Amino acid sequence: ARESQLDTAYEECKKLTSEYAKTFFLATLAMEPLQAKATWAIYAWCRRVDEIVDGPKADPNPETQRKSLEEWMRRLDQMWSDRSGQEGLDAFDLAFKDMLQQYPGSDIEPYRDMIRGMQMDIEDRRYETWDELYLYCYRVAATVGLMTLPVMGTAKGVGAEDAKSPAVALGIALQITNILRDVGEDARDRGRIYLPIEDLKRFGVTEVRGGGRRELCSARERGERAGGWTGGREEGVDSRAGEHLREEPPWRRCG
Fold this sequence. Notes:
By secondary structure, the chain is an all-alpha fold. The protein is built from 11 helices and no strands.
């Protein structure tokens, strides 16, 4: 009965991943079955956290969002401390807990930090410098690599610590790319501007409308910075060449 319950739970995670992350889902089909299932469970967890703040059914009240994220943090701590209990858990949680049992090397901090990244979004804050934006990028993107590192493993002779820096670099690069892609939509629809204030000032930008020459100059610099982080990731990938689908990043604790 438990095996059937878990199969159903993983199917729910698979369905969620295929619906919201079509390209990513196709990549998981090339993984070993156990790795794919674990990756779906991790994605489902991350997606559900994101939905609290940015989902179509998200409560627009910031205080309600904060309380929901606090509850999500408590839920995470409970699942982590009680690996066998099932009280109050749904199908996604059951798959997530089974993933933790299958891959006991998992670390709770990347999951906590992703929740903290979601909390940064409801603070409606601006980022003065690149260093401030880096922390946000780390929390909402680079953490995913650390979550999946126990699942993906490393190449023979390469330790987990050695894989972390290039993995973080990839996560940072991807998040910068997302920011550039969505700069107009974020400013127009969500009232969020992620580009650091120091960079906007340098290019004489006082208001981001999403397409002016000065905005594009600032965006181009962000793109060059993203390319630099991608380069750091490639160095790590070369050292692990030949292994089966090592695409997700590990991470360095950033505070």
